[in-house]
Amino acid sequence: xxxxxxxxxxxxxxxxxxxxxxxxxxxxxxxxxxxxxxxxxxxxxxxxxxxxxxxxxxxxxxxxxxxxxxxxxxxxxxxxxxxxxxxxxxxxxxxxxxxxxxxxxxxxxxxxxxxxxxxxxxxxxxxxxxxxxxxxxxxxxxxxxxxxxxxxxxxxxxxxxxxxxxxxxxxxxxxxxxxxxxxxxxxxxxxxxxxxxxxxxxxxxxxxxxxxxxxxxxxxxxxxxxxxxxxxxxxxxxxxxxxxxx
Length: 246
Hints:
It contains nine helices and seven strands; from the N terminus they run E-H-E-H-E-H-E-H-E-H-H-E-H-H-H-E. It has helices spanning 16-27, 39-50, 66-80, 103-131, 142-146, 152-172, 190-193, 197-205, 215-226, and strands at residues 7-11, 31-36, 55-60, 85-88, 134-139, 177-184, 237-240.
């Protein structure tokens, strides 16, 4: 198994890509800790993944709260003796066009998608530098690379995540810590399933493959980047978008 005995933290792990990535990591032998602010959904996910017999823990954590983040990661290291992999997956949207976007909408998305990644990455980096090994994986998006109507805040954060990824890769490489980003395109998550059929069809048509991606296809890339198969990969941005940007 690719991640045998690796200790992995996945933020925003209660649903969507985070949940499926947690399942993939468990299946590949990792000891997984998922965190989220949605306590009920988090508990349901933990129970579902535990049924497969793997090692899975769930911790209610707000990634925008430094104290909570520090306590979570300190507890992981105390319990397991190390932290091998972090997947900075937690994220939110609050869409509106530029002239209609409220300051509160902008701040909310910046806080979770950018500050949250910074706080988790910073704390994880301190641990991984001492260990002289580790992997940090950050969730970006094709929106961060090419923009999207009505998503000034979201696009800014996902572009910012790429900047942090490349900076951290340069800073932490000497400590044998690899940092990469994954930039999904249109993925068939719970959120997409609630969209109007017309919108979903439009999203599909943007891809040369003429379909949406699956969360499993994103999870597979996270697994590759977390494993020793990608031991010479750092500072990269992996698009999982079905060619939507061609």
